[in-house]
Give the backbone structure.
Amino acid sequence: MTMTKKKLIAGNWKMNGSLAANEALVKALLQGAGAPACDVALCVPAPYLAQVQSLVASSSLALGAQDVSAHPQGAFTGEQSAVMLKDFGVRYAIVGHSERRQYHGETDEGVAAKAAAVLANGIMPIVCVGETLAQRDAGQTEEVVKRQLAAIIHVNGHCISEIVVAYEPIWAIGTGKTATPAQAQAVHALLRAQLHHAASEHAAGIRILYGGSMNAANAAELLGQPDIDGGLIGGASLKAADFLQIIAAAA
Ligand code: 13P
């Protein structure tokens, strides 16, 4: 299972882009990516789902969303449901990104409910976990990421093989301060062991992505770690040449 598992390189555009910039970026990626040896996803802002859906149609690039409501429909102003994402051919949805946890008060339980909502619609959740610098300095990294993942397993354990986990140390996001390959691998191994405990037959096949200042220069070494199965890339996913180099490094 481990041998056949394809790496996943997912770009998280965050709140960036425009119709013109998106078109130029996706066309450059389509031209440069050819038939990538890994899975590639673009997690785009909600208003651009339709645009990017048509740009990546019948290509090897998959469409992703950055967040989702836990509810199927109704009076939830400003939210998008998993049913709606499915309507646009979305294959992956990031849930529990630290920016959502930090700026929108998302809880472990709420994130688990979002994962359940997307799984129920055949979309793979990319579940983000990660510690702050203060938590790392206080020696709490293991406790924090395990608590975050445990909430997901508790609610979604029955379809754990359809989940992607992303370890994103908050202190490494957008800071240019990447976790060292050894630091990242150590946490990925903890997460793998936790998945193994919950679902031993599936644990090896679950992809655990690293996110946090991954770029063209450091991707190969990070992706070479035994438990790093891909990347969730912010800033570098907005530059075609850089993102293509990361895709190549995942081959
Ligand atoms: P950067 O790659 O910009 O550090 O962002 C990482 C991230 O948060 C991806 O979700």
